[in-house]
Design brief:
Blueprint (H helix, E strand, L loop, with lengths): L10 H21 L6 H13 L4 E5 L2 H11 L7 E4 L5 H9 L3 E4 L22 E4 L11 H11 L2 E5 L7 E4 L4 E3 L7 E5 L13 E5 L2 H11 L3 E3 L2 E2 L10 H10 L3 H18 L6 E2 L6 E3 L5 E4 L3 H13 L29 H9 E4 L7 H16 L1
Helix pairs in contact: 1-7, 2-7, 3-4, 3-6, 8-11, 9-11
Bound molecules: pyridoxal-5'-phosphate.
């Protein structure tokens, strides 16, 4: 029996909420305010509360959120910003937009997240910020990152674009920390396939720091501190009301959906024990993993590539996030890195595979994926 399993399918969630979404969109049309305005403010308050942060600034994309967060943190020409090479390209683009230079650190092979032990040697007198990425929805190890930042007087900007609802067990405060709660700023994307997705592009910044918040609010709307008074050269990075109204309908469901993703991930973790695929580890400090993606490591590149072809033949779509680290991308060659500079990230790029994961993925479907993997190994 052959099943068709797409890589991601969020239509069941949309069907469930369709009437509510239609109503919310209708309200925006009736109000006639399509950019910023009431619906955006409502969503911003709800999302700030969801993140245990004082403030949220709705913006036009995750990329815009990163760019504004860096600028609000004072990053600019001549500065260096530390981040990882295995991320979505937007993380690094945003750093370059500010005029600063990205400086990469390699990642931990167990998690594919920033190797905090390697940050120290990359810090120089020019370092202005660290951008940890909570890759696949797993928190980077924030306590050591925050303490390195504090000791060196530099900012932390979290790329939480895959980490809606993620939680970090803060062993200092005994609280669950959310992105943006280390006296810093976190960036989210609401690209349609993210754990909380709009019906188009969207993003947000969350922070509890009022001056970072003010700066982000001004910069997203042409640097205007009040209408027609541009105190800065800003951007058009505004969130529109239609997106905000859809996001407000979906937000109360995100934790439930993440719970369903967790169930899928747990089942994969167990069933994959009978295969040669090794799931990435979830670290002890991860209280909530948002499981934006489910990533496992293959023994070799040829195994990985052969498996993807086999699964595709069985109707199962898979992905690679991400096959080419940024330091090896042609468009980033002027940064001066070369193959071999970040061996862990490079090895991951040729051996990782992302298996289908989404809230409505059933136990039967997960079992079909894993039995198809076993079938590949026994061929
Ligand atoms: C999606 C994503 C972004 C960019 O978000 P956009 O909304 O597409 O601009 C940045 N970083 C990471 C890690 C992402 O997954």
């Amino acid at each position: 029996m052959k099943m068709k399993i797409p890589f991601v399918d969020l239509q069941p969630e949309h069907r469930l909420l369709r009437r509510e979404i239609d109503g919310a969109i209708g309200t925006v049309i009736d109000n006639g305010q399509f950019v910023l305005g009431e619906q955006v403010e409502e969503f911003e308050s709800a999302f700030a509360a969801y993140c245990d942060s004082r403030f949220c600034v709705g913006v036009s994309s995750g990329t815009a959120a990163l760019h504004l967060a860096l600028l609000a943190s004072g990053v600019g020409r001549g500065d260096e910003v530390i981040t990882v090479p295995n991320t979505f390209v937007a993380t690094v683009e945003a750093i370059i937009y500010t005029g600063a230079t990205p400086v990469f650190v390699d990642v931990d092979s167990r998690t594919a997240n920033m190797d905090v032990g390697k940050i120290g040697v990359t810090i120089s007198s020019k370092t202005k910020a660290i951008v940890p990425v909570h890759l696949y929805g797993q928190f980077a190890d924030m306590l050591p990152i925050a303490s390195i930042a504090e000791a060196n007087g530099i900012s932390v900007i979290e790329d939480a674009c895959q980490a809606h609802g993620a939680g970090y067990a803060d062993s200092k405060t005994f609280r669950i920390a959310r992105p943006g709660s280390f006296n810093n700023i976190a960036c989210f994307s609401f690209y349609p396939s993210k754990n909380l997705g709009a019906f188009g592009d969207g993003g947000a910044i969350v922070t509890s720091n009022e001056s970072l918040y003010d700066m982000a609010v001004w910069l997203r709307n042409h640097g205007q501190v009040e209408k027609n008074h541009s105190h800065f050269v800003g951007f058009n990075y505004r969130l529109d009301s239609l997106q905000a109204s859809v996001l407000s309908v979906k937000l109360p469901h995100v934790n439930g959906w993440n719970g369903q993703r967790q169930t899928v991930a747990d089942l994969y973790d167990t069933l994959l024990l009978s295969t040669k695929l090794e799931p990435l580890e979830t670290m002890h400090y991860v209280q909530y993993h948002s499981h934006h993606l489910y990533v496992a490591v293959a023994p070799t590149q040829s195994y990985r590539d052969g498996l993807r072809t086999h699964l595709s033949g069985k109707g199962i779509s898979t992905g690679i996030h991400y096959p080419i680290p940024i330091h090896m991308q042609r468009g980033f060659s002027s940064l001066g890195y070369k193959a071999g500079d970040f061996p862990v990230a490079e090895k991951l790029g040729i051996t990782i595979i992302s298996l289908p994961i989404y809230p409505s993925l059933s136990e039967e479907q997960v079992k079909y994926v894993v039995s198809s993997i076993r079938e590949f190994e026994n061929d």
